[in-house]
Structures are given as structure tokens and as C-alpha cells.
Specification:
Blueprint: H1 2-31, H2 34-56, E1 58-63, E2 77-80, H3 86-94, E3 99-104, H4 113-118, E4 123-125, H5 131-146, E5 150-153, H6 171-179, E6 183-188, E7 204-210, H7 221-239
Parallel strand pairs: 1-7, 2-5, 2-6, 3-4, 3-5
Antiparallel strand pairs: 6-7
Length: 246
Amino acid sequence: MSLIRSVLHMLWMAVTVIPYTIALLLAKWISGSSAKAYSVARAWLKLSVDSARVFMGIRYRVQGMENLPTDPGQGVVLLVKHQSTYETFLMPAIMPRPLAYVFKKELLKVPFFGWSIGALDMIHIDRAQGSRAFHKVVEQGKRLLNQGIWVIMFPEGTRVKRGEKGEYKTGATRLAIMAGAPVVPIAVTSAKCWPRKAFIKTPGMVDVSIGKPIPTTGRKHDELMLEVEAWIEAEMQRLDPEAYRQ
């Protein structure tokens, strides 16, 4: 049954992404604004999350929304635990401000989906460029944060298995410190239902916990990331204790 439900959800996403991409590109062309295009993208992402509940029984619950800044001009760097594709869809759907992802440029080649994110005001990088790629993140990240757009990054860099911890890289805290923006740590237990690289998903509840903003003024990037890592990993063990049992 889980296989059939997963297939149905994948087909639904494949069918709906086409008209939404066309609508997004038209919105960008007619208005000349990425904001209008983002609203279309957000609608499709929310549809994908809602359809995951309908087709596969994957639900979510969020705690800590009150921790998010309410000033519309306040830029924030969201640092999110990364276990599956689910949270990449979920975060824009639940966040009260527009988000800008930092992502590898190879995603731009994905039909329809890649064309959509390419039309949005986000940060795509070529990892092969090393330090030059980071300079691009800082340059564009500062601009977006100054506009009140929230930059979202996965500090582990890639999806990790349930109950495991990747290497927390300091690029996100470097950006936040240089931009003078606070960081917000977020724990997500998506792998309980949607394991990384898995086609078959299972019904269940995904917990999202949003931590309090951490000021970056006067902080060092490495010790700030250690604080973020400690909070996220402790919260993951609280939310999903079964995954961390020895």
C-alpha cells in the first residue's frame, strides 16, 4: 500500500508542477517581480505538502513559531536539519516570510522544477568554484537579508540518515555574522516518514521545532555553529528518541 500511495503522490507532483511552472514564469514575466513568482512557487510547495498528507498519510506539527521575528524588515538565516526532500517543500509552506534557498546549480537543469527555482530570487552556486562560490553566497545573501528575505540553509550540506549527524559546516554562520542577521535553528524529523533517497514513504507525523533566534553580533562563526549544532541535535533526540537509542 505504501508503494501505491508513494507512486500516486509522485504522479500528482509531476502533473501539477507543469501548470504551476507555467504560471510562475508568466507571473515573473508579466510583473517583472520575483515576489509574484514566489507566491506561485509557495502555492505549489504547500500543495505538495498537503498532498503528501492526503496520498501518503504524512502529517506535520510545528512548535516554536512564536520564536520567529515579526519585524518584516528583519533578515534571518534559518539553519535546518536536513533528512529528506520533505522539509525543502515544508519550510516555504509554513514560514511567514519569503525564503531564499542556497542550492547547487545542477538543480537548474531539472525540467520544470529547475526552471521555476531559476526564475526566483535565490542563490545557486557552483561548488567547484570553492571560495568564489562562498563570495557569491555572501554577496547575494546580504542583499536578500537587507530586503527582509530569510535565507535558508542546511548546515550539514546534504541529507543525513535518521538518527545520524552530518558535519556542520560554518558557511551559514559566516554569512549571518557578515550580514549582521540572527540565526534560527530548526529541527525536523522528516526521515521517520520520508527517508533520504527513499521512493517509498510511510504514514506518520513529522515534528518541526523552531528555536529562538541567536544574535550574531560579536560572535565567531565556528563557536556559533557549535551552538546551533548542539541545539539541533539535542532537539532531534528529544523529538525522535527512538532513532537515537543505542
